[in-house]
Protein: Large ribosomal subunit protein bL28
Amino acid sequence: MSRRCELTAKGAQVGHKVSHSNIKTKRRFLPNLVNVTFLSDTLGRAVRLRVSTNALKSVDHRGGLDAYLLKAREAELSPKAVELKRAIAKKMAGEPVAAAS
Structure:
């Protein structure tokens, strides 16, 4: 399992640990990933994803998983998230739009 967010594509970065005597040694900065179960309103089911806490905050800010995925670019999503995005878009396109009366 890679250490990469399935929604934002955040991954590990490489940097230096710097000692008091300014000796630099390589280290990895890992993203803060959590396993989360999202509820898709459109699909009507639960979806488990491994996302960063920053992405979790972004999903909440945009109004849920469906809204986040529809607005996100496919290039930065994981294959699982792209499949979800397409399923949500297909389901939303198939539903008739309720006319305001």
User: Anything to note?
Assistant: The chain has one domain: 13-91. The radius of gyration is 18 Å. Strands lie at 13-18, 24-29, 33-40, 45-52.
